[in-house]
Every structure is written in structure tokens, then in C-alpha cells.
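Human: I would love a firmer grasp of how sequence relates to backbone shape in proteins. Take your time, and here it is.
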Amino acid sequence: MSQSFVTEGTAPSALLTDGLITVPLHAVSVITLSQTYHLPPFGAGLGRAMIDTHDDTMSLSAMLIGPNRMLDRLGLETLAESAMRGSVLSLASAGLIDGLILSTAFGIRMNMFIQSLTVSASASKRGALDVSLSLTQAPKLGLISAILDVVGAVAAIGDGTGS
């Protein structure tokens, strides 16, 4: 029987959580961060500082491994649906944090929502499922959101390598 080159005891490359359910994502092969910047309307004054200036989208390819891989797949599906309805984090933080928290080498991103989820299995990797995720960030406006973004970035570079 074919086995994955990644064993279940290996630390995951990324974590996705809503505060209650946490899904480890192993062997992340690609992480893409796309940022789309919005131009302010012509003639806009200081009021433009209160609107979103950009949209962030992240996509990643990873693996779910081990005997719990089917439970982790179900966990990803549950996270995608629960984030849209209001996550545990949203209730616990009184709406300060919505959606999901994604921890990767790019840092800790809050207020993330799963846009698409693709899971595939192959005969060559019987002990693993390949996963592709596309997430979008819906940040809250204000100082607290900016502080949380900085804390996430600092946490990512805390060991000097970003991993």
C-alpha cells in the first residue's frame, strides 16, 4: 500500500480555524497572495480613508494526511459554511473577528472566508487527500483591525524565517 511521504506526526504547514474547529494543512506546496487595490474616486477628500483600499485573496495547495484525513475534509467543509453564518470567533469577540483565522508563512490572517474548496484523491497517495483552497479576507475597518494585522505579521517573522 502506498504511503504519504508526510507522516501524521509532522507539524502542519498551515492551520485554519474558527476557534472551535482547527484543520491542519500539511505539505503546502503553493501559497499565493493576491491584492487588488481600489483607486479612490476623483475629487474625494479625507472621507476616502474610511473605505477599503484593497482586497486580499489567498490560494493554497496542501494535503490532508493520516487516518483523520476524511474528518479534516469534513472540518474544512464545516469551516467554509460556518464562517458565512457567523463563526464561534465572531460570537466570542463580539463581532471584532469574523470568519476564520489562517496561519501560514505569510502570517496570521483573520477575517478569512473560504471561496472555493477542491479535494482530490489519487491512487498514488492513498494516505492523503490533495486540497486546493481559495480564501478572501474581509477585514474590519478601524484601528483594532490594523493592530491585529500587524500582530499577525510580527508573529510570522518571529523566528526570522517566516515559517
Notes: Residues 69-85 form the longest helix (17 residues). The longest strand covers residues 22-37. Confidence is low (pLDDT under 50) at residues 159-163. DSSP finds three helices and six strands in the chain.
